[in-house]
Design a protein that fits this description.
By secondary structure, this protein is of the alpha+beta class. It has 5 domains: 218 residues, P-loop containing nucleotide triphosphate hydrolases (Rossmann fold), CATH 3.40.50.300; 96 residues, Beta Barrel (Elongation Factor Tu (Ef-tu), domain 3), CATH 2.40.30.10; 69 residues, Elongation Factor G (Translational Gtpase), domain 3 (Alpha-Beta Plaits, 2-Layer Sandwich), CATH 3.30.70.870; 113 residues, 2-Layer Sandwich (Ribosomal Protein S5, domain 2), CATH 3.30.230.10; 95 residues, Alpha-Beta Plaits, CATH 3.30.70. The chain is built from 16 helices and 36 strands. The strands form 9 sheets. A 7-stranded mixed sheet has the order 2-3-1-4-5-11-6, sandwiched between helices. It is elongated. 46% of the residues are buried. The C terminus is likely disordered. The structure holds guanosine-5'-triphosphate and magnesium ion. The site of guanosine-5'-triphosphate (GTP) has 22 residues, from helix 1.
Amino acid sequence: MALRTYEGKDIRNIGVAGHGGSGKTSLVSALLYSAGATKTLGSVADGSTVTDYDEEEIARKVTISTGVAYCETGNPKVKLNLLDTPGYNIFLNDTHASLDAVDSVLVVVDAVAGVEVQTEKVWSFAEEFEQARAIVINKLDRERAGFDRAVESIQAAFGRNAIPIHMPLGEEKNHRGIIDLIAMKAYAYDVGGNGKGKEEAIPASLADAAQAAHEKLVEAAAEGDDKLMEEFFDKGTLPVEHIVDGLKEAVLHKRVFPILCASGLHNIGSDQLLNFLAEYMPSPIARGACPGSATAGGEATLSRKVSDTEPLSLFVYKTVADPFAGRLTYFKIMSGVLKSEATVTNYNKSEPERMSHIAVLMGKEMVPVTELHAGDLGVVAKLKDTLTGHTLGDPKSVIFYPPVILPEPLIKFAIEAKTRTDEDRMGVALHKILEEDTSLRFERDPQTKEFLLGGSGQQHVEVIVSKLKKRYHVDVTLKAPTIPYRETIRGRADVEGKHKKQTGGHGQFGLCRIKMEPMPRGGGFEFVNDIFGGAIPKNFIPAVEKGIIDSAARGYLAGFPVVDFRVSVYDGKYHDVDSSEMAFKIAGSLAFKAAMAEAKPVLLEPVMRVEVYAPDTFSGDLMGDLNSRRGRVQGMDNKGSTTVIKAMVPLSEMLTYATDLTSKTQGRASYHMEFDHYDTVPPLIADKVIEKAKAAKAAGGHVEEEEG
Ligand SMILES: Nc1nc2c(ncn2[C@@H]2O[C@H](COP(=O)(O)OP(=O)(O)OP(=O)(O)O)[C@@H](O)[C@H]2O)c(=O)[nH]1
Ligand SMILES: [Mg+2]
């Protein structure tokens, strides 16, 4: 039977996001169970949650890809669409793209650790999408859990308008419930029970603290509203309904970020959290109109109201390659009403698509619906040409919603099929995986002829290898990531390149004289034609340039592209019969090699801007470690008890960093890196790289197609 449909005003699209392992999946599981959407309280430990259903996720006990589920709650009833997003940095691109589809974000913070690196990252995504936010301090049952400490770290990171509306009833092993600071009521729960609290009196020991927190809250609720402010000054307090009204407005306009309490594992606080999400988080309608552009990637000159009466438009925020169901397209109805079996237009491809059997997701299960209203989230299988980031809809009212821009992959591995059959199937399988994970890159290196797979980190790429094997039965091995070295020159040269050959009939002849000089880093390649008086006929000049470009791409020292240099061709000789484009191309190539020999060639390596986040106690150790990796530490910052170390480190020294950092800090640190610039490799290290490259070439890894 098809599910009933909901209007936008009765829908809440909520992204559940936070640092890796903060308890998002467990919490979503507790919410679904407590709202009656599932029959059992699924757990991460035994792989029975709704939203971590993929076999990789179950095996690793980590969310890799955003899971979507829904439940009905509140009075009047609304539908919560919950998006359980990944929290580990290497899977955060998926979180980023998925959060584009929600209207508010529930940020989950571990009560022991407080705000962590990825907490800040997901916060910045919500800021980018201008979404309302609430924070839940989770795992309050854990040993060393500290509500006050967690609140402090939240306010240090996100400001004083993050304000508790809950307080825990007991902490660590005594955690048994919550105090609602709006209505000033306490609720106790059965550990692992149905998530419904029993009201009890606020314990005397907590009464003062609760009253103080309540007063802060009332003030915050009154702040943005003159009438409430007046009432507040008159009476010194506000009735509960007015606190609620004031807070709702403040949440919608991002003046207040409420802080709640929970233990997902023990199912404590779930009913309160459900009610809060239904009541306070904005509906897609409340968020207002969405900006869009008239052409793909164009400027946002249009806007579309989220309303059933507007023309149909939907945005694809995610694609999953399901080995059985085929390609699944996750979308948000931005405007209009979508009926099952409707034909819509993919604006990006100008192609019609048939929306057969539209559905909503309950984890892996597709629940059929007959129609979806503006603001709702849906899924459909087997679209032909539609990919993540595309907009579809009514062909008469074209609009493009901007796709999320994801960073380029950090790390590339050479990937090698084990057998010939594997190689044949690898491309097809990877193509499908790439459709669902737009942060991956798969390419063939024109220099080394290797297949390269790029991702956000080693584990990211390993998950793909495992998927290839389990889903598509393709066996591959990974080889050490190749460092994209470059070559350049430090000196100048003035040389001649001469190609002369007598073969049977007429011969080949071309001669060019060139000057070569270095350009600043990032300057690329420049070619200057300084020939006057036709020493080389005009039509052969491009051939000289081509010869130089081709040789530069093949490298001089170790087969890496030569960059940041200028060549001017200033003289030459030709022969009426024997000169040809080919002859001048070879002359150019020979001149290039001669010039390189003279111009003091050096190797360049990519240098990364690295930020390491770790508890204070590790900072000395970690700085020493970065130094030993040829890193240059640029500065240190403190954020609460976390130290942030900033450094520039060559990529070749960072290949094992993730693993080393984890073992040095018992997993309590994390890091982020991105490409910054190219720099010269120190001579001793360069010698080794060159030697290795030459050995690989000799072993047949790199075939030079020399002409002439
Ligand atoms: N003590 C305690 N443990 C919890 C709680 N919630 C989750 N855990 C445990 O914390 C671990 C991580 O839980 P998950 O729910 O997978 O966390 P997550 O935030 O979804 O993790 P990622 O999606 O991988 O970022 C599991 O071992 C859970 O059993 C909680 O409230 N209390
Ligand atoms: Mg998870």
